[in-house]
Amino acid sequence: MLDVLAMIEVSWLAFVSSAMILCFAFLVGRRFSVQLPDQRIAVSQPNENGAYLAMWTVAPTLLLFALYFMFGEPLVRFLLASDLPTGFERLTSVERQQYVDRAGQALGLETIPSGADPIFHAVVDRYRALRGLAKGTVLCLSLFLSGSMFLYQLRKLSGGVRARAQVEGGIRLLLLLCAAIAIATTIGIVMSLFYESLRFFAVTPVTEFLFGTRWNAQTGSEFGALPLFFGTVMIAIIAICVAAPIGLFVAIYLAEYAGHRTRAIVKPALEVLAGIPTVVYGFFALIIVAPAVRAVALRMNDMLMALPFIDEPVLAAQPTNALAAGLVMGLMIIPYVSSLSDDVISAVPQRLRDGAYAMGATPSEAIKDIVLPTAFPGIAAALLLAISRAIGETMIVVMAAGQRAQFSLDPTSDLTTITAQIVSLLVGDSAFDSQRTLSAFALGLVLFLVTLFFNLIALRVVGRYRVRYE
Amino acid sequence: MSDQPSVSPKVSCKGVDVFYGDQQVIHNVSMDIADRAVTAFIGPSGCGKSTFLRCINRMNDTIEGARVEGLVEIDGENVNAQGIDPVTIRSRVGMVFQKPNPFPKSIYDNVAYGPRIHGLVRDQMDLDEIVERSLVRAGLWDEVSDRLDSPGTSLSSGQQQRLCIARAIAVGPEIILMDEPCSALDPIATARIEALIDDLRQRFCIVVITHSMQQAARVSQTTAFFHDGRLIEHGETEMIFTNPADTRTQDYITGRFG
Ligand SMILES: Nc1ncnc2c1ncn2[C@@H]1O[C@H](COP(=O)(O)OP(=O)(O)O)[C@@H](O)[C@H]1O
Ligand SMILES: [Mg+2]
Fold this sequence. Notes:
The complex is a heterodimer. In chain A, 77% of the residues lie in helices and 1% in strands. Chain A is mainly alpha-helical. In chain B, strand 7, helix 7 (187-200) and strand 8 form a beta-alpha-beta unit. In chain B, the strands form two sheets. A six-stranded mixed β-sheet of chain B has the order 6-7-8-3-9-10, sandwiched between helices. A four-stranded antiparallel β-sheet of chain B has the order 2-1-4-5, covered by helices on one side. Chain B is globular and about 55 Å long. In chain B, helix 6 runs parallel beside helix 7 (187-200). Chain B has helices at residues 49-56, 86-92, 107-117, 124-137, 141-144, 157-169, 187-200, 213-219, 237-242, 247-253, and strands at residues 11-20, 23-33, 38-42, 66-74, 77-78, 93-96, 175-179, 205-209, 222-227, 230-236. The chains are: A mainly alpha, B alpha/beta. At the A-B interface, helix 12 and helix 13 of A face helix 2, helix 3 and helix 6 of B. Bound molecules: adenosine-5'-diphosphate (ADP) and magnesium ion. Residues 49-50, 179 of chain B line the site of magnesium ion.
């Protein structure tokens, strides 16, 4: 019996038992409340009584299983390690732990590997028994506590407790818990970024990382990230040069000129554009745009070399190049610019437009003189968000921008970016704590801080703008 | 229906219908509007006063689905005729709205906006003069002459409304349309605007929509009563208020409906 229990995944156990308790208590609570003495205004509706009872009854079970998740397995191992058969005393505690580890692995298998000695068999059996015992204890305890809680709350229900208010509190707690999980995750990620980055900076000085001009993390150990920053900025600038005018004009068209019917077609189309997976964009950049850029660059080289005073190629014309990545990234972020700009332009009060028209302004004058200046902060925020999106974009640059960390203002040369480097540093085998791997965390930290900065500014600008016009 | 036979009217409307999509909201309105006088439009909400007013400066063009039929003439010239640019019409017909709507620019630039886009000035001196003259006429100069660079939106709402009037008269219009210009203002600011309207009457043809019977009686010489998209009665203000011909007019001005 306990052996069987030992092999059941604990999350299953938790899920099934709490679901059963939940249903049972809810149904009982619902039915029970119907029998409340007649009142003019019901203290609570049946469903609320059910929810009240269910919520209290399931709480101890959830708590116990949460405890088991955190401390159950370590406790079992501790008991097992401190209670190994005679002869193990001479082993160090680390060696004993390793032995327990192996027993744990064997436990997960169908059959214990052949060639294991009987003592090992015995230890595995003991492990299984202890684990079963632990789970059994948790199960019994939770049934007992939940049962007591059930009876206790049932009595309070019949006493006319304000279930409605308490259920409200329970819902708040649940929502708070979800928010807390999201925040805790974020904090955890940031902490680990900081921690690993600190380990990196313990070996490589911060100044060398931020201002060094040579990056060669794959083979050598040169960690000057300036060429990566350069590549990132270069590609982002190309992208924003594409996305800012097109996105803005799309937004102006949608907000000021397009009729209902056009809007109903163009808006969803832009949303589709925003929904295309970036790997598809990357594919497009690599297969179509990069070769096209290269072909044009080669033609231009030929034409330039025909001139008397130029006798070597001017453009690098690489098969993967910054221009291809930047152009396609620009296409990708058009919806980010246009959608938010459309919102802020539409939010400009109609009475300002009316005022301009009544003064005899043409539509384009009204837009240029009144609407855009009014919407400017919001448009700037849209551009900032788009830039931060461009800086963080990975797939397109990994596929189409190249791998060489270099300074080159020639957009047809291959460049690499922070994100592309992070990918190439972390794929493939290398010890987790090698300086090479740690450098990815440092890059990630820089990326995080820069995009955070842009986003905060953008959000502040948008917020202030909202306050002004509502 | 007009009773100004002596001088030719500034604005003359004949058989005007207005539709929003399929819905007709103005039915066959004919009316003459006299120059250098104030005409008040009164009537219950939704009866079509604003819609009819917008026919005069072709502001209905800016509303999707709006369609105007019939004849609207300014000085005998059909404003809806082919080849007439609404922009030129609107430079001759100023408009002031219910809620003050200064542009998010400086006080100076608000007033200078019209002259600039219509190319009315040759140099900065010209423009300075127009701005000053318009603000003086709008009775705002004394209050803002020392802070022409501060934003128009920093003024009180009564001052903002006078700024909008200054902005409208800066391009030298012949007609000024006001759509409930005082409904967002306090009584003191309202009194100032009313005095201003009375003053401007010397130079302009003015049409004012108002929901206040007292205001209509105070500022206008002619009153038109609209009901349900139709012009019910139109005549001297004093006549309309003392001896209305139609019972609906009587009911409205005595407050029995609307
Ligand atoms: N843009 C519009 N689209 C459709 N219907 C409108 C529009 N503007 C006004 N209307 C309708 O036209 C009628 C007259 O409106 P309006 O001229 O604003 O009346 P008033 O100014 O007298 O209160 C109302 O029934 C209103 O619902
Ligand atoms: Mg109105």
